[in-house]
Write a structure and sequence with these properties.
Elements (H helix, E strand, L loop, with lengths): L1 H64 L4 H19 L2 E7 L4 E2 L5 E13 H10 L6 E11 L8 E13 L4 H8 L3
Antiparallel strand pairs: 1-3, 2-3, 3-5, 4-5
Length: about 180
């Protein structure tokens, strides 16, 4: 009986106890590595989000750089108003610059105030005004005035004057500076 007790006790002391300690250490190391893998995965996701944001910003700068001239900004604004008119069933009657271009707080942006005369149903006008600043044309809606267009039907047509500022990207490149210094 003593020999069985010594044999079992020796087996527990020599085999089971060290093995259980090794298993516990391995489990602890596995948990540490699992937590580290989760942290690394979160960092990879964050890096991917930052890369996507960087790509979007680069695309925005490229798009704005293409609108560096007043004619390019005007063409982009006209294309935007044409799309908005079709989408919201609005009649764009006129687009008139109201004063000279004004620089924005950032020296790279130049703003041109415009007045857009449109006609349409009330909800369509509101939807268009709220949607204008959400596109690749930098446009800020400053003021909207609504007038009755004389239509007394169930869905009256309103006339609206939208006062907005269209901004364009203006970089002072060496080439532009050279052209500006040459006499005409």
């Amino acid at each position: 009986m003593v020999s069985i007790t010594i044999f079992v006790g020796g087996g527990v002391g020599i085999v089971w106890w060290p093995s259980s300690q090794t298993i516990a250490a391995t489990q602890l190391q596995a948990k540490v590595l699992y937590d580290e893998a989760n942290v690394n995965e979160a960092e990879v996701r964050h890096a991917a989000e930052l890369q996507a944001l960087t790509d979007r910003m680069a695309d925005d700068v490229r798009a704005l750089s293409g609108q560096a001239s007043p004619s390019a900004a005007t063409a982009a604004t006209l294309a935007l108003l044409n799309r908005e008119a079709r989408v919201f069933a609005i009649d764009v009657r006129s687009i008139v610059p109201t004063t000279a271009p004004t620089p924005a707080p950032s020296t790279a942006l130049v703003g041109t105030p415009i007045e857009i005369d449109v006609g349409g149903h009330f909800r369509n006008l509101l939807a268009m005004v709220s949607d204008l600043p959400r596109h690749n044309v930098l446009i800020e809606v400053n003021d909207v005035s609504l007038d009755d267009d004389g239509d007394r039907s169930l869905r009256p047509v309103l006339s609206a004057k939208i006062h907005a500022t269209v901004f364009r990207y203006h970089a002072n490149t060496e080439e532009e500076m050279g052209y500006a210094s040459k006499p005409l």
